[in-house]
Amino acid sequence: MSCEVTSEVSSPKSVLSFVDQDHARERAEQLLEVFVSIMSESTDCYTRFSIALPVTRIYLLLLGDSPSSFVARQVLDLITISLNKSKSFSRKFELVSGWTVLKTTLPRVWDSNIHSAAFGILSDQTQDQGTVVGCSQILPAILSSLTRMLVTVLVTQGSPPQDIEVNENGAYYGPFEFETISLIWSNGIEERSTAYAEAILEELVLLQSSCPTFRQLFESQQTTQSYIQAFRTFVTRLASANEISQNHIRICEKLMHFGLTLSLDHSVVGPQKREVCLLLPLSV
Questions:
Q1: Total number of domains constituting the chain
Q2: pLDDT, tens digit, for every residue of 172-197?
């Protein structure tokens, strides 16, 4: 007599890890902040990280196409760490177009924290000889941010200038590197843009007066032309504005102040000095 025993053994169920999808962005930003803190505090951790991975590309991946202001600030902090620990980082970051990416990205998320980090990269105040230029490659991003702030101040004042087109989403297009200036009407947008523009101009004037190596950056005609373009954009559009506010007047004074220092600086070539001088009467 045969006895057949059938044993039904259930297969083990797959163990699924539960991922909390709530507040994913906030959690990711917290993790990034911790990562930046570790890189800042531990030279050994940074060394291991830089050996294991291409830090320049990792920074661009962290930045992404449309970062928040917080993420952009954290990436700038990582860049600062790398600049302090590696003399070759600036060149390596340039090879992956990192500085160009910052030039197009930072204007969209500029705020007081980005301002502090960007100018911290530009100027080095730890030197015995006083303030010197730390990393000049960040200056184009600063000047692009200035241009964006200046245009935003004007287009929020009323109707857009004639050389800006409006699409169906209310986005204004103009002849700028960043292509689009989104006009989302919200409380304080003009005040914030004015404050950011004034802060940038004040910082430029201070560096121009106190840092010889900063003045040398304007030996580059491309750098000087970036400022001239921002200056010209503002004063020519202001001429057709519906009204001129105190914000406009203060910005004009600061633009004129820095422009005057450029027109008197031996680092600036003659033709560009004349361009600046032609703009000065328009800002009065």
A1: 1
A2: 334 443 334 444 444 478 889 999 99
